[in-house]
């Protein structure tokens, strides 16, 4: 069985972080995001190949994942000549498929039991099965109404507040039958959410919901990107040994190759990656993530912030509730706060405030 990962979006809501790092490979702690999705797919033994459907900076992604190596999953890359939208991308990547295929939005992190979703799909002989999850505010997602037998009755992408009729949304995980793909026009942008799914409902196809109430998040905004780190540090996402906090939630996770100098203060939960130096008097506070090869200088403070690799936070500077890209330089006594997101190579001069 094959899986298609839709990973071709530009990641506009995560800009400027995604200018040099496409969303599928933004780091979650020290691993590119897609690794976590591949871990989930590996739980299903019959999935033997993952097709990464790309168009934005595909080379960067190929360099990281190669052909899947010894991961047990073959990885194939399909690069659209131009963005074809979520349905166009599925058709483009899956045109040769003849058996059920799993499709995944490339920015969701979840512990859903994928084998159970596939089993339901087969049991119900569905043309499409879609994972739904409850959220407080469906406006940023696809709202999905079902009947008492879990048949999908209505799909409304990005509903307005007065259009909200239930709390279940499209979790971005589907099992599809490829014989439905011929209703997706070839080589034109086409949306799975706005066109393909509504057409299945209109034509009375068997279209089924699997409701999942466990951990689920779309990492596509700075707020959610920060939240996923906090959730993992709190032990809310524990799947797969690779999640650094799975075994020890709330810990201070310090790489053995990091250097925490005498007189530096480190308060968990936090994450400090290899070759990073934390100087005397500096403070790494709870819910901070500091990537590799960073310098946190004397009396600097990092609090509830994420600092990507190779950045420097100079003496007495503070970074709070914010995200710094790679190779940033925060000058002495500077302060970054309130959800600021700085792109790679940003320079903030001494005493500046953001
Ligand atoms: N290959 C390819 N080509 N991939 C694309 C394209 C495209 O033209 N457009 C978007 N994608 C990929 C994105 O990279 C992302 O992984 C996924 O498709 C979904 O796109 P987003 O831009 O993240 O959509 P969204 O988050 O606003 O909404 C979608 O996800 C929600 C759940 O997180 C919808 O599917 C909603 O219905 C859903 O609730
Ligand atoms: Mg998204």
Key phrases:
6 helices, 2 domains, UDP N-Acetylglucosamine Acyltransferase, domain 1, 7-stranded mixed beta sheet, alpha/beta, single chain, 354 residues, 17% helix, Spore Coat Polysaccharide Biosynthesis Protein SpsA, Chain A, elongated, 6-stranded parallel beta sheet, binds magnesium ion, binds guanosine-5'-diphosphate-alpha-D-mannose
Question: What this model shows, in words?
Answer:
Helices cover 17% and strands 29% of the residues. With 354 residues, the protein is of the alpha/beta class. The chain folds into 2 domains: 2-222, Alpha-Beta Complex (Spore Coat Polysaccharide Biosynthesis Protein SpsA, Chain A), CATH 3.90.550.10; 251-348, UDP N-Acetylglucosamine Acyltransferase, domain 1 (3 Solenoid). A 7-stranded mixed beta sheet has the order 5-4-1-6-11-8-12, with helices on both faces. Strands 14-17-20-23-26-29 form a 6-stranded parallel beta sheet. Strand 2 and strand 3 (31-32) form a beta hairpin. The chain is elongated, with a radius of gyration of 22 Å. It binds guanosine-5'-diphosphate-alpha-D-mannose and magnesium ion (MG). Residues 105, 107, 218, 220 line the site of magnesium ion (MG).
Give a nutshell description of this structure.
By secondary structure, the protein is α/β, with parallel strands linked by helices. The protein is 17% helix and 29% strand.
């Amino acid at each position: 069985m094959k899986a298609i990962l839709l990973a071709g979006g530009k990641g506009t809501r995560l800009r400027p972080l995604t200018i040099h790092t496409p969303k599928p490979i933004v780091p979650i702690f020290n691993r590119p995001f897609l690794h976590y999705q591949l871990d989930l797919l590996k739980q299903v033994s019959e999935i033997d190949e993952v097709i990464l459907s790309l168009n934005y900076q595909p080379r960067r992604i190929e360099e990281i994942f190669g052909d899947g190596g010894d991961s047990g999953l073959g990885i194939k890359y399909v690069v659209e000549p131009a963005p074809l939208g979520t349905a166009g991308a599925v058709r483009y990547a899956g045109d040769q498929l003849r058996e059920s295929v799993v499709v995944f939005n490339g920015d969701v992190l979840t512990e859903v039991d994928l084998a159970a979703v596939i089993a339901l799909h087969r049991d119900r002989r569905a043309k499409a099965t879609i994972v739904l999850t409850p959220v407080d505010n469906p406006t940023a997602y696809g709202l999905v109404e079902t009947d008492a037998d879990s048949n999908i009755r209505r799909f409304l992408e990005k509903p307005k507040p007065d259009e909200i009729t239930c709390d279940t949304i499209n979790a971005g995980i589907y099992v599809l039958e490829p014989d439905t793909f011929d209703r997706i026009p070839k080589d034109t942008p086409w949306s799975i959410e706005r066109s393909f799914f509504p057409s299945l409902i209109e034509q009375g196809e068997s279209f089924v919901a699997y409701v999942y109430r466990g951990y689920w998040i779309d990492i596509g905004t700075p707020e959610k990107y920060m939240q996923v780190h906090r959730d993992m540090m709190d032990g809310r996402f524990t799947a797969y040994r690779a999640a650094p906090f799975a075994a020890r939630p709330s810990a201070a996770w310090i790489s053995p190759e990091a250097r925490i100098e005498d007189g530096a203060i480190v308060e968990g939960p936090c994450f400090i990656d290899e070759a990073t130096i934390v100087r005397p008097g500096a403070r790494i506070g709870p819910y901070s993530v500091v990537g590799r090869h960073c310098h946190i200088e004397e009396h600097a403070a990092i609090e509830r912030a994420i600092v990507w690799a190779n950045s420097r936070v100079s003496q007495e500077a503070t970074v709070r509730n914010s995200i710094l890209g790679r190779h940033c330089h925060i000058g002495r006594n500077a302060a970054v706060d309130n959800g600021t997101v700085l792109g790679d190579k940003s320079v903030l001069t001494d005493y500046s405030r953001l």
